[in-house]
Design a protein that fits this description.
mainly alpha, elongated, 0% strand, 80% helix, 2 helices
Length: 74
């Protein structure tokens, strides 16, 4: 069985969530900008803003999940 540390229990879901949320954000960006599905990467400034916002909400999601797991495991 694999032993997962507390840090890994936060970092791994954070990276996975960040990755999938970023792909979703790019699709939404393309739908709003071009009116069609696509995954064209936005300009640098908008890309950094998207990654920043996604990172914050990804971290909140992982933290909430981690705290709920601790709460319900007791």
């Amino acid at each position: 069985m694999i032993d997962i540390t507390n840090l890994q229990a936060i970092v791994i879901p954070f990276i996975v969530t960040l990755f999938f949320f970023y792909i979703e954000a790019c699709i939404h960006f393309n739908m709003g900008k071009y009116g069609k599905l696509g995954c064209k990467i936005p300009p640098f400034k908008e890309n950094i803003q998207m990654i920043g916002i996604i990172s914050i909400f990804s971290l909140l999601s992982v933290a909430a999940t981690y705290l709920l797991e601790i709460y319900f495991s007791n």
